[in-house]
Amino acid sequence: MGISYSPLRYPGGKNQMYNMVLDILEKNNLRGCHYVEPFAGGAGIAIRLLFEGVVDEITINDFDISIYSFWHSIVHQTDEFVALIEKTPITIDEWHRQKYIYANVNEFSLLELGFATFFLNRTNRSGILKAGPIGGLDQSGNYKIDCRFNKLRLIALIQRIAENRAHINICNLDAKCLISDFHRDHSFFFIDPPYFNKGKKLYTNFFELDDHRELAAIIEANLKDIPWIITYDVCQEIREIYAKRIVDTVSLNYSLQSKKKANEFIFFNKLSV
Ligand SMILES: C[S@@+](CC[C@H](N)C(=O)[O-])C[C@H]1O[C@@H](n2cnc3c(N)ncnc32)[C@H](O)[C@@H]1O
Description:
Elements: H1 18-27, E1 34-37, H2 44-51, E2 57-61, H3 65-76, H4 78-87, H5 92-103, H6 110-123, H7 151-163, E3 168-171, H8 175-180, E4 187-191, H9 199-202, H10 209-222, E5 228-233, H11 236-241, E6 247-253, E7 261-269
Parallel strand pairs: 1-2, 1-4, 2-3, 4-5
Antiparallel strand pairs: 5-7, 6-7
Helix pairs in contact: 3-4, 3-6, 4-7, 5-6
The structure holds S-adenosylmethionine.
């Protein structure tokens, strides 16, 4: 699945595309650029590009308040977040407590919500926030709730990310607003919207056909001179929306659990590939 420096396990995570993105950045003189993910999720590629010194600044944007609060907390309240990891037991009782926080956003702070999101992401099946815990509520499965929760490794990762905070912007905008208001040179956008077909099952905020169309219109209108790629599950509707664009297809493992492969479209702007 490719190396990941993201503390989040992310369904549909694009880590596997790291080498392809690196290649595109190098071929197009984009080393040292500002790298923007308007639909960031686990932001695996962004973090790795920053760690490996390929880009100078990253913008991690996600409209889902729980994902945003995770990124915001680890970058801006690192010590408190690490203390929560250290003192929180990884048990089913705790899972119920964290699930309550996740479901009652308004009663809790960004830090509490960010931690609940992280806890559920690391303890749920396939990292899906709406799924149940690994091993089941009765913990009768072969794998147990804490099998993806190596505290020391996760703390080290989070501290490394936080040390780079001067190069990281965290935002909680609708991607369409982020794109509409964007005015900066030497930038590159990696746009990974919710899948056309499977998005509803995997993520909290989902897109309908009209949202995909509107997003395309906003990208075409506002990012004319900025290099970008957009990725999608292969389907006729999306091919039609981006009919004028050069398209490539890549094969990715699409689930954290199964080894099944799925093809994805990639459309390009202002890039030699
Ligand atoms: C396909 S996932 C991104 C996965 C990510 N590229 C990765 O590798 O982990 C889509 C993400 O977009 C977010 N999202 C959904 N609707 C959004 C919107 N209107 N604006 C910004 N983010 C949105 C979801 O919360 C989800 O985290």
